[in-house]
Amino acid sequence: MTRARPIIFGVVGVILLGALWEIYKAVGPATGVVIGGITVLPRTSDLAMPHLLTMWNRLGEPVLSQPGSPPLWQAVVAAAGFTLGIAAISWVIGVVVGMLLAVLMQRFRTAESALLPWIILSQTVPIIALAPLVSGFGSQLPNWQDWMSVVVIASYLAFFPVSVGALRGLESPEQAHIELMYSYGAGWWTTLLRLRLPASVPYLLSALRLAAASAVIGAVVAEVSIGLEGGVGRMMVEFASASSGDPGKPWAPIFGGIAIGLVAAGAVALLGQTLRKYRRTEVAS
Amino acid sequence: MNAVVVENVGKIFTVARRGTVTALEDISLVVAPGEFVSLIGPSGCGKSTLLRLIADLDQPTTGAVTVFGKTARQARIDQNYGIAFQQAGLLAWRTVAQNIELPLELHKVAKPVRRARVAELLELVGLTEFADRYPEQLSGGMQQRVAIARSLAESPGLLLMDEPFGALDEMTRERMQNELVRIRKETGAAVVFVTHSIPEAVFLSDRVVVMSPRPGRIRDIVAVDLGGTDVRDENLREATGFFATVSAVREALHGTPVDAVRGVENR
Ligand SMILES: Nc1ncnc2c1ncn2[C@@H]1O[C@H](COP(=O)(O)OP(=O)(O)OP(=O)(O)O)[C@@H](O)[C@H]1O
Ligand SMILES: [Mg+2]
Question: Which domains does chain A carry?
Fold first, then answer.
């Protein structure tokens, strides 16, 4: 019951969004709503806002009109799988790097004051600026491939929430618990394993969720910036420009992107289930 | 060999922007093996600080603390004491049994030995059926019993307790006191026990150390005379010797004579 609830809310939300789309399309002005020269709401033509059914039907039709072209949904699934793979690798790298940084900052006060500002600053660099740098550096290495540049950028986005969240988690145990470990003569490493890490799980889980979202968005955007073929990012750009007479088509990779996000969120939720016992909190006596 | 020897200990805290606080001044105290000593005194007189010095959670500014003939530091590393605080301080992700097991696990005690010891301790604090529960599923009193079991895990010769029953209701508190008397008899451990309750101190202790604040000093040490018996049970709470000692402690605490049998001051 309680577990079904978020799913029910999610489904209802999607249905509402779809209904809103169709209602606005039916009653909205054909030229859209323009205030002071700025388009506030889109035009309602079939080209700008295709019917949901058009989008759905388009998925079943071939990608191109040439014979032998696979159905669109197959192409999208393949592209989404590709992007999901890149996002997953990036997530793992981001989590490992983020955790290592967090442990380092917890261990050495000076590391915290030296690293944390840079970590925060690092996230203000836009991907657009980063992409050419990364691929430029990469191209000087032997065997470097474009997908690796995408991984670098996506993990660059993913490590941030992990390092910050994990640091908060590692520093979350109460003084009393830390002193208890000290009274047992436990060293830093033992205290980390037996107290700090388990105590950080609730913080870590939300950080891992954020990192998953960052990895997916980072992968999609970096595919576009780097110009990597095969994923939904590139597909979105291609379909948007090449399909002025085919309004349903650009939506397919967008749905693919959403599906990746859902799979990623689901995977982290599953991880949270296996770490359930670490999410208990002690009630004050 | 004495369980604890505190010699001319002083402790000065340096507080940022507010100078120094003399928490303890010239404290000397000897706790014999198996002896139960309570520390009592107004808030801020340094009871917790003294306990923390014995536990090596803090270091004295002057003087020396010796535990079983070793430095406090060595005694901590050798696990010569068990410690319990006002808050149970259980790890939320560990079951009752796993919480009690923690110190044994950290000191690499073999698993079968650990199992047996945990079962013993659960029996001792009457929580055998709750072995697999998590702390959040227990009442405050039960959590406190788990913390006490944990402090006894390595059969220490010395127990350090800082207001362990402070957060409990009166009924639970008296029950826990009775249990502590029994546990102590079974384990033979020396105890240094911080409390705010005079009756509690008298009921449990061989000697009550009365402290005064600013700076924290020992004002008086009252030996508990049970009037012939050495049985601490429910009857003791009603005995005249008990009331006489309660008054003696109260006098030492307030520095003025108080009417001898005026009933019980609870906290
Ligand atoms: N870490 C610290 N830094 C600065 N001052 C401290 C510190 N710990 C204790 N003090 C000061 O030392 C004095 C004694 O404190 P302590 O906690 O030992 O008192 P206490 O007798 O245990 O009081 P209570 O009955 O309220 O627990 C107090 O004035 C307190 O402000
Ligand atoms: Mg105190």
Answer: 73-278 (1.10.3720.10)
